[in-house]
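ZP: hey, is the phosphoric acid mono(formamide)ester complex queued? I don't see it on the tracker
AM: it wasn't, my bad. submitting now with these inputs:
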Amino acid sequence: MTVRHCLATDEWDDRRVLQLLDRAARLKAANRDDEALRGKLLGLVFFDPSLRTRVSFEAAMARHGGRAIVLEPGRGAWALETRRGAVMDGGAPEHVVDAARVLGRYVHALGVRAFPKLDDWEAARRDEVVRTFAAESGVPVINLESARRHPCQGLADALTIRERLGEAARESRFTLAWAWHPKPLPCAVPVSAAIAAARLGMEVTIAHPEGFELDGEDVRSVAEVARRCGGRLEITHDIDEAIAGADVVYAKSWGSLRAFGDADAARKLAAPYRSWRIDERRMRATRGGRGFFMHCLPVRRNVVVTDGVLDGPWSAVVDQAENRLHVQRALLLELLGGDR
Ligand code: CP
């Protein structure tokens, strides 16, 4: 039997995504716990830190009578070698292939968070760690954020937009605005958010400074989902033009792929763009001044977005974070067969 994974929602058909969003909305509205996942175990492997992903998955399992077991390789669990064919004479005493095979014998599904090592984009873009777990564990694997995708964040983003715009999402404008940040960050969230908006048939604009182009294959994936779902994709280097009249402003920083692995070069490339920040003036320029603001969190206040936007009526960020819980409940019920 084919094992179903959740690695990248652009690999799913549109119907599966929309059904999952419907189920998440029903679970949220019903606000009831049950025992649909009783006896089910979810292993959560975090190579990188988390607040929302970890707690929302643990909460999702608990709310349906299941359990989650958290592992942090290198902190209480063995550090894992991730390179195929490595001669393991360095620090890591266990290979990710062996860990995946063993964990698959203990639990019914696995979640894996593995950010890119900031050295080589050609290697990072293969999402090897998450895909190794999927290939080797024999159980459903959920990508909890890799170099390329953060599917659960994208699903929560889509649910949040649907809650606020409903069917009008199809006639609405979604702007993904690059933001200045002191450190180069991965591209998984912005790409997943753009895919989520494209799937809702929105007119998607990605605004970033020159030199901060997303991976070409990822841009093509967004464009392909938009084409299929009746939306559109545009790319601009003018943040104010992108925000004027938008219904949704999603701020997110990402590191330049041109300077991937070179922190100094990355800082120099980003330095002229400190003004790429969402403030009240920019939110007032949205459609009727009533566009809403999204960010996956964590966010650097007054760097990426001002306090005035985050604490004001524009902000949807806490709803977004809450919706992680509901889409993941729906996902776990789908993957673990707790269909009731
Ligand atoms: N948005 C998100 O994935 O948050 P965490 O990094 O805290 O899990």
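AM: back. The pocket of phosphoric acid mono(formamide)ester is lined by residues 50-53, 145, 153, 296-298 (CB under 6 Å).
ZP: great, adding it to the tracker
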